[in-house]
Amino acid sequence: MDLLQREGMYPVPPQAPSTLGVEFSGTIEDFGRDVQDGGEEGFKAGDEVFGLAYGGAYAEFISVSTHMLMRKPKELGWEEAAGIPETWMTATQAMYLIGEFAPGKTILWHAGASSVSIAGIQLSKGDKAGAIFVTAGSQEKIDFCVKEVGATAGFNYHMQDWAKEVLAATDGKGVDIIVDFVGQNYFQGNLDAAARDGRIVHLGAMSGTKLPAGVDIGGFVRKRLRFEGSSLRSRDEEYQGKLRDTLVEHVMPLLGKGEMKVYVEKVFSWENIVEAHQLMESNKTKGKIICTIE
Question: What pTM was estimated for this model as a whole?
């Protein structure tokens, strides 16, 4: 998202500033005049918090609704806390609200070593998925997803026909839920790999948005598939607040106890933001890239 916004290719919400960044952690400095007694959550100046904003997190100070703040557990560092909000809320939204996940269902996370999918793999495992599959562009990333994060199996999209591999791994049934960030190049494969009554959750289009000629959409009717796109940043404050409450209730206790983990690839000083973006562009990361302000 940051890379796309930097290039002027991301639809920024009207209430967002031009400054990049939607995730942050820090201490509360003060409250606006319209916030009484620290808001409904009872925050106080000096509280250690983290949260989600419509924009503006690449800065020393940020103005944000108290509805989108969460208290930082003492067990988590500042860098870990800053890597939680957008990532884990997006995974939660895709998996439960749109994908209608339930224990026993099978799920495929594309871009398996991305931060959202790393969170999603852990959520899927913690909620007893029938099987968890990933796609990735290297064996190193697949090994990471399977051996360290907890996926059942992974498929290298450079070397394998991942849709056929998914069907083979599920005895021809396909998977119940597919979470996709790729778009054009994976559209047909998603239709082929989805199970009957499956859900395909579309969160991005890294390969493009225009489908090539010859795409067979027969699976929509034949398998009663539902394809739904979504985003988090464009949602209103009430919707994001409900997601925050879900995260606080179901995920934060597990992160605090170490049963789930925020994977951080590398921490940069914010003065080296160009290097951070270059690392992001390399597509070699496994987890979050965090920038700190000294």
Answer: 0.90
